[in-house]
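Final report, results section. Input specification for complex C-07:
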Amino acid sequence: MQNFLLIASTLILLCSFGYTLFRLGSGRLRPGRPNLAALVAVFVLLSADLWLRGQVLRSCPINSLFDVMIFMAWSTTLIYLLVGSAYRLSLLGAFTTPLVLLLLLAAEFAPMDRSPSIRELRDPWIEFHASLSLIAYGAFALAGLAGVMYLIQDRQLKKRKGGTLLYNLPPITDLGVANTRLIWLGLGLLTIAFAAGFVSGMQVNTIKFWTSATIWLAYALMVVLRQVHTLAPRRTATLSVAALGFILLTLPAIQYLSAPK
Amino acid sequence: MTILCAGINHRNAALEIREKFAIGNHELQETLNHLRAIEGLSGAVVVSTCNRVELYASSITPTPVMDAIRRYLKSRTSGLEAPFYTDASLPSVKHLFRVASGLDSMVVGETEILGQLKQAYSTAAEHGATNTHLNKLFQHAFRVAKQVRTETSITRGATSVGSVAVDLAGKIFGDLGGRKVMILGAGDTSERVARSLVSRGVRTVIVANRTFDRAAALADQIGGLAVHFDHWHTAFDEVDILICSTAAPHPIVTREKLESIMRRHNERPLFIIDLAVPRDVDASVNELENVYLYDIDSIEEIARQSLNIRQAEIVRCEALIDTHVAEFMHWMHNHPTPSR
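Structure output:
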């Protein structure tokens, strides 16, 4: 059943991504309802998958790297559904789809531990810390995608050539605002998650601690500098993309160091 | 029942001829009454715009009715010979569908004509000049136009300097409400661009011109504020959009000058439209962060791209229209009886 849910989610995203590429190739890309519909369907399927695995594990299913990938795909979709329409950034769906697809494909096909043994019930603060951290990473993922869209739109406007992307991407000012607000959202969630981690008194590996602290500090620095107008929107966008890359690269290491031994 | 269409448009008649045939709003009722008095004519709609004067009618005796319409059109201009086109049923239906979809317009894909057609139909209906066939025909035409606009890219992109500027401003700022514009050099094109931006919600327009009286006159016309040309940069801090069209022989907005201004701009984007030849703005300004510089060539290139896209869509539009024409003709075949 769980395999079916994941395969169905992957196929839906593949179709949606293929459709977007086709529309882009034919020069008729429009902020699409198909992407939104696909992400709603995927959110429902992944929620069901997480619930089923949570029932089996009797805890939030984020014990293995496989679990983490699925959970992050789910949290990225959740944040998109929560904020995508609020900012009228419907084309954000076209950019969210490939990232969620990539996370699911990595979970399904990359060689990784995927069936941890059922453990004793963990401290609820630790559960809260871990799951909220991944939801915060979902917000950072969306901030990174808004950053990519900002950089593409900036390039289109600077090139002075017009074209399909220019007309279909949202206004660059809106993208800059969305990028900053998503960073704020992610930072707020990550701060609460870290606070929960401290409350639990959990033992943290030094590398994991400093990696997580670096991520938090990087985003905190971005919003502070942005707030005092020292960091321009374009640089904020670039840094949010780089930070997302850093998160995606270090996530497996953090998960390995957090895994119950 | 036959659908008839007669008239002239921008393709077959020059402006001097079209303006003689134009039917003003005050003449519409009289014209409709005159047409309804033609024996055998069971309904009529008069479309009169700057690019066309067309009469759509339905009749069971098309030949004498068409002759009467021609005589009427000639009588309006003391017998002036004009290249009227007259068509019956299938070509007339197809012509109306093409007109409604913007395919017969001077700027292919423009949408103003649809509003004008709706107005013409509504006026005729209010005066009781339409019948079942014309009602069905016009409702179908509006549906075709909507489908063509939704399913093809025929209305895509802007095709004039003013509309390209407005589109680009929208892609930079989103909502233009509350934005500030500065005009450097009060030329005709910069005035038109400024008016386009004001129509989209721009709040303040500052005009600077070497001749202060000209700046004051333009500012007065568009509800702006005139400043002396030598002091333009002092009023620049809050400006979001700069339109340049001076006759200066060298750039008056240099990179150095703008760099210091942009430091006070709080990271707000600056959109510069340089319409002057030779250019008023140093091209390297476009490399500055948050500055988007478009000269007249780049704006005209975008307008040309849009027109090319629209031209390429015509075949798809025609195919859609043909399907609807066949559908309407089938309905006509099944409903031959005239009714008011």
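The radius of gyration of chain B is 25 Å. The longest strand of chain B covers residues 2-9. This concludes the modelling results for the funded period.
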